[in-house]
Amino acid sequence: MTIMKNLFKYIVAGACAALLAGCGAGGAGGGPEAELVGVYAIKKNGALKEVVKIERQGDRYVMRDKVRTPEWSEPKMQMQPVTRERWTKITTDSENTKFVGVSSDQLAIFKVPPGWQKNSFKTETGYFLFYSQGPVEAFKL
To answer: CA distances (Å), 128 to each of 57, 76, 140, in order?
Structure first.
């Protein structure tokens, strides 16, 4: 009887684990852009400074920042997944570079292979922010 109870517990636990795994970030998060959710920093005077946070709210992504305040701002921009066409427009990269990105009209954040380079910009981390001044190396925290 005890063996059957234990066996039943393991089966139920395994089924629950499989169900939870199916409902994780990939299951509820839409596409590959879900991996961009998180906090990003840039190097300023040799130290990392948190500047942008990407969050998922329902079926959209939003950006918060710490540019002018020490605390995270209210959601400032809605971010959309970046298509290949938009990637080429933003970065002028016409290669078949593997990327994941979200962008608004003012800011984009990308994950590319570490070491990716375009013109004089090179990312060691594989993450970068792109805004009106061009690309900036980012560090996902």
So the answer is: 22, 19, 9
pLDDT tens-digit map of 41-82:
999 999 999 999 999 998 889 999 998 889 999 998 899 999
Q: Which of 36, 40, 119 is nearest to 82 (CA)?
A: 36
For residue 76, the model assigns a pLDDT of 85
| Per-residue confidence band for 30, with pLDDT thresholds at 50, 70 and 90 | low
Residue 28 DSSP one-character state: H
Per-domain boundaries in the chain: 1-30, 31-140
How buried is residue 29: exposed, middle or buried, by Cβ count under 10 Å (0-12/13-18/19+)? middle
